[in-house]
Fold this sequence. Notes:
The structure is a single chain. By secondary structure, the protein is α/β, with parallel strands linked by helices. Helix content is 42%, strand content 23%. The protein has a five-stranded mixed β-sheet with strand order 3-2-1-4-5, with helices on both faces. A five-stranded mixed β-sheet has the order 8-7-6-13-14, with helices on both faces. Strand 11 (205-207) and strand 12 form a beta hairpin.
Amino acid sequence: MENIIVLGIESTSHTFGVGIVKYVSSINETRILANTYDKYIPEKGGIHPREAALHHARVAAKVLSDALQKANISMRDVSAIAVALGPGLGPCLRVGASLARFLSSYYNIPLIPVNHAVAHIEIGKFLFGFKDPLIIYVSGGNTLIAIQRKKRYRILGETLDIPIGNLLDTFAREIGLAPPYIVNGKHQVDICAEWGSEFISLPYTVKGSDLSFSGLLTAALSLAEKYIDNKKKLGNVCLSLRETAFNMLVEVAERSLVLAGKKEVLLVGGVASNKVLRKKLELMASLHGAKYAGTPPEYSGDNGAMIAYTGLLGYLHNVIVEPRKAFVRQRWRLDEVELPWIQD
């Protein structure tokens, strides 16, 4: 088998990214050659899908060019194109899908469909050499606990309403702290939490292995409105919101770890870069003798490298789609994807 180079395109939400990976067959090794991106940052409010898509269309050519230059290759060297076809925001997904279809057709190279959630997990497993972990996937669009079984990821528990990233972003935005949501690597809720020191009891809703954050958000916003001019008391609300939400997640993760009997715990997704959450899960895993790893910030947020790597897995197992049939799927769930590379 010759060396394989896969170019991956990510455009599901606020980030347009291009990643390039290379599989060196002679030594059975995969290398990440490039991971470039440009992120849409709204001037106010949350993500506006149409504005984000316009951003992606504007930056796509430069991000692609930068990735090829960093990898020191040309499009003629690429073996296959991988693209995230869902889940995500429709207008944003269509930008990446259109570019991928064009590149695949123009250069006559295979097109690999990739589920965005699967890619978050696969890049984490690749980075840490995990084979069969308990997966905790936390982001602005997802909050779930999963394991792999019978060539699919099976969801043991998930949010019943809003994801944990959405909870933090919405709270920060509604009390006037965001955007920007992240400052010097810290979420605005974490920065606000440093102003406080006292824990306030807030709604804690865990149902089996499922979670609900909407009541917590409503209660925290109600308190924050009262204390908006009192920095210390507002800090107490931020601290309590974060601790309550993270403790809920740790509880369902711990229950799932014991139930599934796994020996590895893997934290992935955009919220995986949160140091407080990482510390809590690392402690929980150590109490049960399990290895713990969380994807580093470069690969925990949306990125092209995770699409390229998952595309490589698909290419090696002949998961290929004709460009004219590469449709976007806004609600493409993690557990709907059959993955031939997962061993039973």
